[in-house]
């Protein structure tokens, strides 16, 4: 017996709802004309006033995508858990970066690490 994948109508409703919400948010900020003169520092760095929690959630949302979740799950299933060493390494490296690298770059008032040699 051959199995055929089918998409449930509720999935279309959820997908359509998400697209409408995203479109609404995009149109709202496109029509709002209060920050047309926003510079690089305001756009990329949140005027250097963005807290650690919103910044970390932004980075997390950037890195944790649906494709990544499906891709890593499939990779673990097919090839094993050898990529878990990257997570273990991150537990060691992230505190070092947070305490040493980030304060140096922040105090230099640069937007990117590529500007350090500048």
UniProtKB/TrEMBL annotation:
Subcellular location: Cell membrane
Pfam families: SSF (PF00474)
Record keywords, A-Z: Cell membrane, Ion transport, Membrane, Sodium, Sodium transport, Transmembrane, Transmembrane helix, Transport
Main location: membrane
Keyword Heme: no
GO terms, molecular function: transmembrane transporter activity
GO terms, biological process: sodium ion transport
Domain of life of the native organism: Eukaryota
Residues that span the membrane, as ranges: 12-31, 52-78, 84-108
A GO cellular-component term linked to this record: plasma membrane
Family: Belongs to the sodium:solute symporter (SSF) (TC 2.A.21) family.
PANTHER family noted in UniProt: LD47995P-RELATED, SODIUM-COUPLED MONOCARBOXYLATE TRANSPORTER
Protein name stated in the entry: Sodium-dependent multivitamin transporter, putative
Organism: Ixodes scapularis
């Amino acid at each position: 017996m051959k199995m055929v994948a089918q998409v449930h109508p509720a999935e279309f409703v959820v997908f359509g709802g998400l697209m409408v919400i995203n479109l609404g948010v995009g149109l709202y900020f496109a029509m709002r004309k209060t920050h047309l003169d926003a510079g690089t520092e305001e756009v990329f760095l949140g005027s250097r006033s963005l807290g650690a929690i919103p910044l970390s959630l932004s980075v997390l949302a950037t890195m944790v995508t649906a494709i990544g979740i499906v891709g890593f799950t499939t990779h673990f299933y097919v090839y094993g858990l050898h990529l878990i060493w990257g997570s273990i390494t991150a537990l060691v490296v992230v505190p070092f970066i947070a305490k040493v690298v980030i304060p140096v770059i922040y105090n230099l008032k640069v937007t990117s690490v590529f500007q350090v040699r500048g």
